[in-house]
Design a protein that fits this description.
182 residues, 2 strands, flat
């Protein structure tokens, strides 16, 4: 069937020359014939095109998967050595904190016995607090690296403590390739 619509509208049009035209009671005639011809005689080329697109998408998916796997394989040793570096740095901060604590203890004894003024003791105490803060911050970095390492290795408990040796890598000979692939 044929459907006709007549609508009275106010229409404002701005031209490319910046002139504005205003039409009042503008009549809008819309005709809807409702006729649809959907006959297809030959569509073989479209099928071939869709097949080529699917092959291309499949190839792109394989490439993206391969890149993700290669990135993971590259990230694990990088994170491993980063974790070792942070653990060594943590040991240095722990050692510096222990030295500051000992210095503060000696300065306190000297202050109490009257050999030093309170200034040296307070300076040693300030250094100890500074070294303690650095050690605590380093522990936070180490925990973050531990969590990231657990995520990369696919451990369910990301807070699991990893005891990673810093000098040699021991390979577990009981690993099954198929289980690892899954």
């Amino acid at each position: 069937g044929v459907r006709t619509t007549l609508t009275n509208l106010d229409r404002t049009v701005q031209r490319t020359t910046d002139n504005v035209t205003c039409n009042t009671n503008y009549a809008d005639h819309t005709f809807d014939a409702g006729v649809s011809l959907g006959w297809t005689v030959f569509d073989g080329f479209r099928i071939q095109t869709n097949y080529r697109q699917l092959k291309t998408l499949s190839s792109m998916g394989e490439t993206a998967t391969r890149m993700a796997i290669e990135d993971l394989i590259a990230d694990i040793p990088s994170q491993y050595y980063g974790y070792i570096q942070q653990a060594i740095r943590s040991n240095y901060y722990r050692y510096a904190m222990s030295l500051s604590k000992e210095r503060m203890r000696i300065a306190e004894i000297n202050y109490r016995t009257g050999r030093f003024s309170g200034l040296e003791y307070h300076q040693a105490e300030s250094d100890f607090r500074s070294d303690s803060t650095s050690f605590v911050r380093q522990q936070e970095v180490l925990v973050a690296n531990n969590i990231q390492m657990n995520k990369l290795m696919g451990n369910a408990n990301v807070n699991q403590h990893l005891d990673i040796p810093d000098s040699s890598i021991v390979i577990n000979s009981e690993l099954n390739y198929d289980d690892l692939w899954q």
